[in-house]
Amino acid sequence: MNLFFAALLLIAASGNLHAADSPSPLPLKPACRGLMLRDYRGSIPEPLRAFINDVVVLVRWDELETSDQTFDGPGWARIDRALDRGLRVRLRILAGIHAPDFVKTAGGDPVLVINSFQPEHRGTVPRFWTREVLDHYEQLMREVARRYEHHDDLCEVVASGAMTIFAEPLYRAQRDADSHRRLAAAGLDADTDRAAHDRVLRIHHEVFLRTRTTLAINAWDVLDADGQHTVSIPATRDFVLRSRELMGSKLVLQNNGLRSRSLPAATSAADNIYAFLTEIDGPKGYQTATLVHLGASHDNPAPLIEAISHAVRSGAQFIELPAGSAQFTPSALAQLHALDAALSHNARDTVQSPP
């Protein structure tokens, strides 16, 4: 590492350099592309090795920071193993219900949140919209940047500081009315929610000079002061367009629920998140639904192949595959190999520098 680059990293870590302040921004790392393993656990299954080199490393916040500013958890080794093997990495750190206990109590008592569709997914979340919790998130991101900003293969870090259960931060409680009311009583509403997301993205933009930020988008669960909620795609669109003005192609967009029926039904970008992703430029892609929710199986991969094919035609540059994809037949794997090449072809036009 030359002295100039080292100095830039040192200044960024101290918080005294904003990316927009730099007269000649450093070139961004390439965005992830092609078919991806969505939860890398140390190896890529043999049938997928011919075409997968981009992976998601999934770690919980409490696996990284064991106590306040003590970054010695086992999750770092999982990241390092992927990088040591030459894989290109999207780092997804699960906050929300997976935050350390000292973070959960930083801004006040934690709040119980339950996914009404899958009640087994539940836990307490910090008041992520408060300055105290977001300050902890910034410290974590600065540690990630200190360790990996220089590493070309740590390509993206997911913006998860304002999540609840899943790293899809515009979902709040999966339409669980009691959870929404508890969040509202603790201080979450449309204004504090948007402010939290704004700060999360500004933290990423200021801390990471070359590493991109990935944001999962869907219709936003917008709460009012009484805990009533509106599922709003216009709120999502407005937030994404403003964030793209700030970050440009440094912001990678994805949706985490791609199904075979999603894209063919897309009509208006004003009321369909898939149509919006098709319309918007810049790096973008999807995580598929699970095989069960896709209506696919190892004997019937057609719904998965169809969904990815539509995503390729919509301009997607990456797809996070569902678990179990390595067990498809040789014919289906050959189709996936071809789709990986098509996704990578879409990625060739990705702009490599912020505005």
Q: Which characteristics define this entry?
A:
about 350 residues; alpha/beta; TIM Barrel; eight-stranded parallel barrel; two-stranded antiparallel ribbon; 11 helices; about 35% helix; disordered C terminus
Characterization of this structure:
The structure is a single chain. The protein has 11 helices and 12 strands. The longest helix has 18 residues. α8 links the parallel β10 and β11. The N terminus and C terminus are likely disordered. Strands 1-2-3-6-7-10-11-12 form an 8-stranded parallel barrel, surrounded by 6 helices. A two-stranded antiparallel sheet has the order 4-5. By secondary structure, the chain is α/β, with parallel strands linked by helices. α1 packs antiparallel against α4, α6 packs parallel to α7 and α10 packs parallel to α11. It is globular and about 55 Å long. It has one domain: Glycosidases (TIM Barrel), CATH 3.20.20.80.
Topology (elements, then pairings):
Blueprint: H1 3-14, E1 34-37, E2 54-60, H2 75-84, E3 88-94, H3 101-104, E4 111-114, E5 122-125, H4 131-148, E6 154-158, H5 177-186, H6 190-207, E7 212-216, E8 220-223, E9 229-232, H7 233-247, E10 251-258, H8 273-279, E11 284-288, H9 291-294, H10 302-313, E12 318-321, H11 330-347
Parallel strand pairs: 1-2, 1-12, 2-3, 3-6, 6-7, 7-10, 10-11, 11-12
Antiparallel strand pairs: 4-5, 8-9
Work out the strand percent. Answer: 15-25%
| Percent in helix | 25-40%
**CATH fold descriptor:** TIM Barrel
Distance between the termini: 25 Å
What is the CATH superfamily? Glycosidases
Computed CA radius of gyration, to the nearest angstrom: 20 Å
> What is the name of the CATH architecture?
Alpha-Beta Barrel
Order of helices and strands: HEEHEHEEHEHHEEEHEHEHHEH
**Pairing-aware structural class of the strands and helices?**
alpha/beta
Number of domains: 1
What is the molecular shape? Answer: globular
Task: Write down how many β-strands occur, each being a DSSP E stretch of 2 or more residues.
Answer: 12
